[in-house]
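Q: Convert this sequence to structure tokens.
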Amino acid sequence: MLLTIDTEEEFDWSAPFSREATGTSHTHTFSGFQALCEGIGAHPVWLVDWPIAHDPVAIEVLGEAARAGRADIGIHLHPWVNPPFEEAVSARNSYAGNLPRTLEAEKFGRLKARIEEAFGVAPAIYRAGRYGFGPNSAAMLAEHGIAIDSSMRPLFDYRADGGPDYRHHPAHPWWMDAGRGLLELPVTTVHAGALSRFAPRLSRFAERVPRLPGLLARARLLERIALTPEGVDKAEALRGIDAAVKADLPLLVLSFHSPSLAPGHTPYVRSTEDVAALHDWLRTVYARLDALGVRSACVADILAAARG
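A:
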């Protein structure tokens, strides 16, 4: 099991994208959250974007944890706040994979270099902001020696504003190239419920009947459950974990956004009580994983297992 954190700036999720929205005040929570992770046996993977890579608190706390082997640092590209600024700011261009090949590569290269300079580690894992993997992204990662991508979110469709369609992507890890140089670790989303074994056919049928997915989910006949504390309660998450283990997924990838560690920055966390609930979600989830014999992993563990 891998705990990943999209470690990014604070911005209004309901407003248009802005180059000026680069606040990072929530980084004061990183030390306490890193300690919580260590207390429950988690090895966090902090996927860092451009504003975070320039925040002194983040650099100190996360860099120390990574160099001590208590966390991993990865790369998280938000193109609208990552130089060079050559593209128009728009929903479509917020998906890095939609940018021209040379511009996506230049943004990525600058971010990778900054992370290496600031944190003193060489990142091996990448997640495109907004899950925006594109036709040139795999070659770009290979050129930079990145071993793992975790940009794909099975069962989700982002085409409405120009993003990718992951509805029919597998939930299990897979090699993206014949030479086994780039491993895809999809963010875990599973189907659960009495009809889950029929999920592929039912999902395709439900796409043509707009209200059907909601009806099936409310009846717990066919639920789409993402393993995240953002918008998924503990009971749902536990059903999702049980379904993932039953499906024999070799790896579970949990995820959330770092601004959710402080109130008021994401739609999911509006109060200190919500922060406490996020912490409790993780404690509960890790207790279930431990009971099921699912162990926490780091990036090196996963690469060693995949290549072994």
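Residues 272-291 form the longest helix (20 residues).
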